[in-house]
Structure formats: C-alpha cells, structure tokens
Specification:
2 strands; about 150 residues; two-stranded antiparallel ribbon; mainly alpha; elongated
Length: about 150
C-alpha cells in the first residue's frame, strides 16, 4: 500500500474513543472573527493573566482595537508585510529584524535599561583600558625601560 492509500484509509480512526466523531464541520471564518465573537460572548471572563494582572476578554478586545486603530493611523493596513510597515515607519527591514532578535522579549523599560547598562559597560571598558595603559607605563618607568 502506498503512503497516499494509507492516508486515505485513515487508520487512526480505529483508535478514536467511542462517541468521538470521525469528521467535523469546520466553519469558514477567520481568527479575528472568532476572537471578536468570543470576546463579546465572554467579555467579563478572564482572557489572560500577565505578570499577575488579569485582563478580561472585553478589555483585551478594546486594547486590540485601539492598537489596530493606532497602526491604521500610521498608515499600516491589514495584510501589510513587515517590509511595508518598516518602510512606512522609516526603518529598514534589516533593522527591524535585528531589533527583534536583540530586544524581542523585552518590555520598553527593560530595553531602555539594557541600553543604559550597555553604555555604562562601554564607559567602564574604556576606563579599564586607560588604567591598564597607565599601569604598563608606570611599570616600565619603574623598571627603567623608559
């Protein structure tokens, strides 16, 4: 039996518990439509908990709608690619992906703090380099190699 015939014979169905349908109807809809419908239906129920803060479906829908409106106000439309969005914002696509790789999981405050720490680290490295040079010069002077 070739792989296509095996697939079409649906051998996994024999492992389904009794009462589990072998086929289901999948509605023709989009994820945003399902989200909107469920957010309206369960608006007062908790949708997610993030760092201990509970966000209900109604609030989550409001926030996503506001975010979409803000993006739209920047000229970003549904279906735009990353390249199109980056171009509209004056950022190269390469820069976007570099930022995403570097800061992907950080909040804005964390990213700002990271930049501050990086600047301080650079300053301290220069200071150590200067002190090392001063020490080397003093050692040479002390040994009479000047």
């Amino acid at each position: 039996m070739d792989p296509k015939e095996v697939y079409l014979s649906k051998p996994w169905l024999k492992y389904y518990p009794e009462g589990v349908p072998h086929e289901i109807d999948v509605p023709e809809t989009t994820v945003p439509d399902v989200f909107d419908k469920r957010a309206d239906q369960y608006s007062s129920q908790v949708a997610l908990i993030f760092y201990g803060k509970k966000i209900h479906y109604g609030k989550l829908k409001e926030l996503t709608d506001r975010f979409a409106a803000a993006l739209n106000g920047l000229g970003i439309a549904k279906g735009d690619t990353v390249a199109q969005v980056a171009r509209r914002l004056g950022v190269s696509e390469q820069t976007y992906y570099r930022w995403r790789k570097e800061y992907g999981g950080l909040t804005v405050d964390q990213a700002k703090r990271l930049k501050e720490v990086e600047h301080e680290n650079t300053r301290l490295k220069k200071l150590v380099a200067d002190l090392s040079l001063d020490k080397a010069i003093l050692e040479e002077v002390a040994e009479g190699k000047y």
